[in-house]
Amino acid sequence: MKRRVILTFPPQVVQMPLTYRLAKDFNVAGNILRAQVAPDEVGKMVIEVSGALDRVEAALLWVQAQGITVSLISSEILIDSTCVHCGLCTGVCPTQALTLQPVTFELQFQRSRCIVCEQCVPVCPVDAIRTGL
Q1: How far is CA 103 from the centre of its chain?
Q2: Which of 2, 14, 18, 45 could form a disulfide with 7 if both were Cys (CB 3.0 to 4.6 A apart)?
Q3: What are the C-alpha distances in Å from 7 to residues 18, 28, 49, 94?
């Protein structure tokens, strides 16, 4: 089973060897898709956790018990027709799910590459990008 989650670390927990503990204590693999973690600051990590269903659930409960907020990713990025194809979102997309087509300069979105990190949402000057179900 695989689950994509967003982990929000309080400053006092950011130095915990999280992926090591997931692997060692729970036999769960943690694939870090995006992370913004620095000492003494609130950190965020988008991680795909995979393993047996009961092990993944136990691991996520343990993570919460450490004071780390766990948010399941259940939404997706939506781009509406007000998009002006400016390309600002392509510069912040860590997975290159958003690109400009080289000939027409129209925005291309590869949903399969998107990790729903939402970095593109605040940079859109016309609010054409949002999250939804």
Answers
A1: 30
A2: 45
A3: 11, 16, 11, 17
